[in-house]
Amino acid sequence: DINRNRMDSPGHQVGGPYHDVHARFSGPVVVDGFASFYERWIRDAGVTRQALEQELPPPDPAAMPRHDAKHIGRIGRTYPQAANALEFAQHGERSTYDTLLAALRQARDYIYIEEQYFAPDDGYVAALRDAGLPGGAKRLAIVIPDNGDQPFSDLRRRNVLEQVRNVWGDRMIVGFPQRRPLLNRADRFASRGRTWLVKECSSADNEIYLAVPARAIKAPFWLWIDGELMLARQVVKPVEEEGVPASRVTVERGAAGGSPRWGAHPRGHAKGAPATFSQVKGIYVHAKCMMIDDVFVSIGSTNLNRRGFFHDGEINVFAIPQALRGGPNNPALALRTALWAEHLGMAPQMGHSLLRDPIAAFDLFLRPHLAGNRFTPYAATDIRPYLGITDLELWPVSVMGLLGAALQSLPSDFFRRIWNLLSDPTTGLDPAPTETPV
Q: Of 142, 253, 273, 320, which cross-links 174 as Cys (Cβ 3.0–4.6 Å)?
């Protein structure tokens, strides 16, 4: 997926933070990957094989360099079973789907998933649930974005997570990565994001006054006063408070007593206390990666939904390292520990030493975001309800919501039709092609 914003750094201090996982494979498996490229290029570019071979000769299997390590590498693909059949996949192909299900059945230690959508079909859900039964895996960790851009996928995702959690319980954690707060550079912006408290506030106040009003940003945003995190809902400016031009900010604060809503305990703040605010952005998870037991790795373009499994044209590479889990140079172990270190707020290079044991390292995902984690548990801190965004957060639903009475006249199966035809279409390869969003 060649795009300029796909290569964000582990620090994610950019305007549009982005997380992805790429694979480079070498050795004999390159021949299989190249064959898939050839098939697609000949079809989509309208060239002949002879002409393409002259421009870009295919690799000779006998000439491919051999490695000392005998890792297993395989290619999986998705191609639709369609009326206008592809000449190289007359009956479609779902080798990625079948491989992922087979891998889930072999899990004994952990399952780790990074996924853009996570709205899988019932067959995948059943395999994931069964993997959590006695005799199966011990831990399940899923990293997804804080919001989705597939219409109605949030409905399906929440339903799937509920089904899976009923089996896994507290051995499962699901969440999204958040970037640490980023302030604009003071030399380019007039201290935007940095203000002070005009009047004293108590631990119960939900209206505060900040100066200078010109520095206030558009709500909603996160606000810190002496380290207490608040959610700013509304800003009215300029107003005058105690003879000082100010912004009146309506805020939500952590729960008074008991477990704080986002790791912050409300308390009083004195007049003149420094206030800082910033948009805390989620790191968009674009990866389609699954790892099992430091033995099996899947990286590719296949999303965990029906489009990815049965409908679109997708490709994945699967790998099993020669030395399996115990090898000191296990590339699967190196990848997992680097990814976990990134999500846990560590330097990726530290992960190999600190996170080798996946069961012990799993508990670190429970550490609060404010204590250093980028990873934020979905159930503990679902940011969208705080920001006033509903489960149906995407533009098609927003537009329909504005239509008011017209929405009431839509057929009762309208959302199901949208899901099955536009959002998550499928083909005859699907074992349950009539599945609805929930």
A: 142
Residues 308 and 44: their CA atoms lie apart, in Å, by 19
- The encoded tokens of residue 151 equal 């219409």
Instruction: Say if strands 172-177 and 139-143 run parallel, antiparallel, or are unpaired.
Output: parallel
Tens digit of each residue's pLDDT (9 = 90 or more) over 394-407: 444 444 444 445 55
Phi first, then psi, for residue 367 (nearest 5°) are: -65, 140
Q: Are 224 and 275 spatial neighbours (Cβ–Cβ below 8 Å)?
A: yes
Torsion of CA 213, 214, 218, 222, to 10 degrees: -60
Q: Looking at 41-171, which runs of residues are DSSP E strands?
A: 72-79, 93-94, 110-115, 139-143
What are the φ and ψ backbone dihedral angles of 222, each rounded to 5 degrees? -90, 140
To the nearest 10 degrees (0 to 180), the angle between helices 95-105 and 122-130 is 20
In this predicted model, what pLDDT tens digit does every residue of 104-158 receive, in sequence order? 999 999 999 999 999 999 999 999 999 999 999 999 999 999 876 777 788 888 8
**Residue 201 CA to its chain's centroid (Å):** 38
- Using an 8 Å Cβ cutoff, are 299 and 288 in contact? yes
> 406-420: string of b/e by CB count within 10 Å (b at 16+)?
eeeeeeeeebbebbb
DSSP string, 138-175: SEEEEE--SS--STTHHHHHHHHHHHHHHHHGGGEEEE
CA atoms within 13 A on the CB side of 383: 23
